[in-house]
Structure formats: C-alpha cells, structure tokens
Amino acid sequence: MSIQEFLRDLTYLLPFTYLVSWAAVLLIVDLFLPDDRKGLLAPLAALGMAVGIGLSILQVGQQQAAFNGLAMVDGFSIFMNVLFLGIGLVGVALAYDYLKRMGLERGEYYILLVFSITGMMLMGSANDLIMVFLALELLSIPLYVLSGLARPQQASEEAGIKYFLMGAFASGFVVFGIALIFGMTGTTSIPGIVSTVSSGTLLNPLIFTVGGGLMLVGLGFKVAVVPFHMWTPDVYEGAPSAVTAFMSNGAKAAGFAALIRVLVVALPSIATDLTPVIWIIAALTMILGNVVAIAQRNIKRLLAYSSIAHAGYILMVLVAYGSAGLAAQAVAAALFYLVAYTLTNFGAWAVVIALEKKEGRGLMLEDYSGLGNRHMGLAVAMTIFMLSFTGVPPTLGFVGKFYLFNVVIEGGYIWLALIGVLTSLVSAYYYLRVVVYMFMRDGEPEVRRDVWVNLTAGVTAAGLVALTIFAAPLFDWATRAVLAGF
Amino acid sequence: MMVPINYFVALSGILFILGAVGVLVRRNLIVMFMSVELMLNAANLAFVAYARHYLSMDGQVFVFFVIAVAAAEVAVGLSMVIAIFRTRQNINVDDLNSLKG
Amino acid sequence: MIPNEYLPIAVLFILATGLAALVIILGHAFGPRRPTARKLMPYESGMTPIGPGTRRIRVAFYMIAVDFILFDIEVVFFLPWAVYARELSYYGLLVIGIFTVLLLVGFIYAWKKGALEWE
Description:
heterotrimer
C-alpha cells in the first residue's frame, strides 16, 4: 500500500476517521474545562456527530472496499452510519439536562459516547471478522464505563460490572467462533470466507458450523436474546437512564448490524444448520420477554424486558436469511423495524427521563398516575410510544411488524409468525397498562421540563405517526438504497 | 515431525470450555475475570496454531489485536472492581444483589 | 502418535518429578523430627513474620498497574512496524505516526487527570 492509497482509503471511511479524530480532540478539550463547565462538551459532541451525518450522506451511492478489503463503504454501511450518529445525537440531547440534575455532569459521558458511536460505525462497515471483533469491543468498552458512570451509587456500579462481565464473556465466544472459522477457511475476510466455502475447500464443515454458532451466541448476548438476556434488566435498571436510553438503541442496532453482516453475507452456507437455532431463540425471546414484562412495576425494568422482546422480533425475521430470494427482504424488514424501534424506544425513554427523580424515584408505574391530567402532551406522546411498541396502527411500530411478519410468512415459518402475533397481543396488556395509569388514575406527577427531552419526545411521537403515511415508498427506497451490496 | 494441528485445537477447545465454566461457577469477580481471559487466550492459541498451519499472517495479526483489546478490557474491569471494593469492601458476586427485581 | 522429538522432554519431565519426589520421601523417612515453636513458624528468609500473609495493598498500586498494562501492551504494535520499518518506508512512518499520536492523546489525558500522581 502506498501513502496515496492509504489517504484515499481514509477518505472512503471519512465519517469514521473524522469522528475518531473529533473524539480525540474532545478528550483534550475536556482537560481544559473547569469542572462546572463540562456541559460545554455536549454541544461539541453533538456538532461533531451532526457533521458526521453530513459526511455520511455525501457518500450515498458509493461502493468501495478500503484498507485491503477490511472495511466497506456501501448502502448498508452508510445507512447504519446515519442511524448510529442519529442515535448519538439523541443520546446527547437526553443526557444534557439529566446529567446536570443527577449530579453526574462529567465530561467522560460525551467522550465515551462518541467513542462508542465510532465502534458502532465501524461495525456497519466491517468486511472482515477482525473488524467485527474490534468494532464490537470499541463500542462495548465505553458502554461498560458509561453504565457505571453514577458511581459510587451501588446500583450503577453493579450494572457496570455485570455488563462488563457478561460483555467480556460474550466477546470470548465471538473471538473463539472467529478462530474456528479462520481455522476452517484460512482467512478472516468475509468475501474470502464465502469464496472458500463455495469452492468446497473447507477443512471441516462441522467445526465451521460450530464457529458460526459460537458467533451467534456471542452476538446474541449483545442484542439480549433469550437465553443470553439475564444481564439486561439489571443493567438497564442500574445504569443512569440517559445511558440506558443510548445503550438500548445503539448496542442493539450495532449487534444486529453485526449479525446481518456475519449471517447473511459470510455464513449463508450453514443456514440450514443455524435457521432452526434462530427459530427457537427468537420464539423463546418473544415469549419470555413479553410474559415476564407483565410482572414488572418498575418502568426501567419493563422497558428492559420490552427491549428483549423486540430483539426477538428482529431476530425472527433472520430465520429467512438463508433463502436466496428472501434474504434481502429480510434484511430490509429488520432494518426498517430497527428504525421504528429506535424512534419508539427513544421517545419512551425521554418520558422516563422527564419523570425520574433523584435516587431512583419516580420510576414506578404508580408515579405515572394522573400524567394525562397534568401534562397532556407528554401523556399523549407516551401513549403513541406504547401503541407503537405493541404494534397498533397508525404507528410505525405497526408497519414495521407488518413487514416482519410478511417476510416470515413468505418464508413458510407460519408457526413462528403465529407466536409473534400472539406475544404481541400479550404485550398489549403491559404496554396499555401504562396508558391506563396515565389517564385513568389520579395522581400528581412532577415532571421536569427540559426543552431537549420534550423535543425528543415530541419529534419521535410525531414521526412515528407521520411516517406511516410514507411507509411503503420509504421501505422501497430503503430496500434499494441499502441492499445494493447484498 | 510436527505436532498435528488437531492437538492444538483440542487443547484450545478444552481451555475455552474451562474458561466458560469458570465464569459460570466461580463467585469471585477477579477469578471470573481471569476465566474470561482464559477464553480469549484459548482463542489466541487456536489462531496461532491455524496461522502456522496455513503459513498465513492473518491469524497472528488477530492475536495482536485480541491481546491489545484484552488489555483495555482488563483496565476497565480492574478499575470497576476497585470502585466496587471501595464502596462495599467485598468483591463476591453473590453480594451484588441490589438489582434483583 | 507422539512425535519423537518430544521424547527427551518427556524423559526429563519424568526424571525431574521422580527425583523431587524421591528426595522428599527420603527426607521424611529418615530425617529426625524435633518440632519447636520457632521451627513451625512460616519461613520468611530468617525474619520473624508479622501479621498474616495477605495484607491490604494500597489501591494506588492497582491504578499504576492498570496504566502500565494499557501502555505496555499497546507498544506491541510497534514491534511488527520496527521489523519492517525500512521496507514500509514513509507509508509505515505515517501509519505508526497516527497510532502514536492517538496513544499520546490518551497518555496526556491520563497524565493531566492525575492518574500518574502517587497520592
């Protein structure tokens, strides 16, 4: 490689390289800010990510491999970059007032958030298992620290260490899975793996399948599917709410980006072996997530189980990843649902943050009583989020689920689709209970008025309803733009 | 005569399983943490063994990255363990139960 | 199935273990045993031991250790570059330069945050 090629490849990955440099600049800026002015990093981080979105959009239409094929710029990576940077922007918006109010205003939050985003972006572009691993760690390690941000509060410390141990455990599975796949194919490059498999020079197909299975387990931990979900409720509850909001969207989207790259692009050859496993995992996740959520009185734990359940829905569509005609459609449906889920989830967390008080108060369902009388706007927004989670029209959550079930049924997995529909009905019970509390019970909830949190709730709620009108053209457009590389 | 590749892979598989079981059954944070490192190093062994088998550099490069990342993980993990020890004077996971719902 | 080159190692292994075991057994079998309180104390290079063996160590040691691990391991990436520095020429220099700058930013951050202070 020459210097010219190196610089050219850096520009191929410009949104990523730029954001890494920006994060390094923020580190230095943080050193020179006095302790009471750390909030200044929030607009700086937001500015950086906004510029990143601009740079990503400028890349639309490109299709390049960079750094000897380690990373890719294609429709999928650009789409994921914009999604991740958007998640980062909302993460900053939700945190700004929250951190001040909870006495957590440290510069680290924004810096770690930006570093985590760089990891997620790398995950979207990864075209080599080395990159998948590095991206996974780059996005996870800042998240471990962020979960423990509110130390010395015991709950936060505990969340941090639990997330750390489970995350490191999961990385162990991913690395060993990659080792076995490398051993069977002699390469870590995703196109290389595909060509080795198709040329039939695989050392031992059984061990290759085991390697793929181990990677599925490791990534399953990251996106929190049953039976690898045990950490989720504890970590989501213990971490500061702003961190949970960011993590539950960012880590999940990145985990699914990795699953899609690894399963759909690298491992379609072992689909017949992995599909039954995915079937069972998805079914268990949807059932357990939704059923256990019914028993939750704490809104953070409720949203944690809801996030497990939704991981199940997205995973459900990947059962179709092996059938050539459906793979692209399955990916498009998964991505569409991911966007719908991200909008809904951020909105719901914005409401949670608006109601949360110090020392973890204001998080029980009872604390939402009377919200409808006191703060009509917020209550209506929360209702829209709950309807979207359930999958009731006219919300984007409904459209997303419609596409998911469409693909699953077309793939012939009728029973799985049935489980999905039935568990959605079950989920209506606990989602709508929140609505019942808000409008049917009396209470005097205190709400923190913050312009950014209100804006997040308002925009996501409006978007969830308004975008349903354009859902079909959006889906078609996204399918074409994103899947050029698949 | 060279040691056959399968010996290395079997050894690394055993090490990996030992590590995974260690994380699940041990109750001391530091020991659980060491078990995770054992899993990573089992993977490293498999990588170098296969790299030798294919006479390719890819596997060895991967090991470099795994080692570097493991060091970053160690730094974060140890710091968290210290923070927890400072607040509780104890690092047994069974006592980390303030979050059981 | 076991390769022949490893035979000497196996022989050495068996001999070493056997000899060590033999010496201990002989000592136990024929050595006189007259225990006194002083003899039963743990051996501390001739000093009288004070307190239990596992003592609290200052947390500052851990913090220094953590920093050391981080920067020590990252240096591993210099090694392959150093071996091929001539062949890689300016391109290698540029890449390792970027790496070093990023590492330096981390170092300056740790330094200014007081991670290297003993107190």
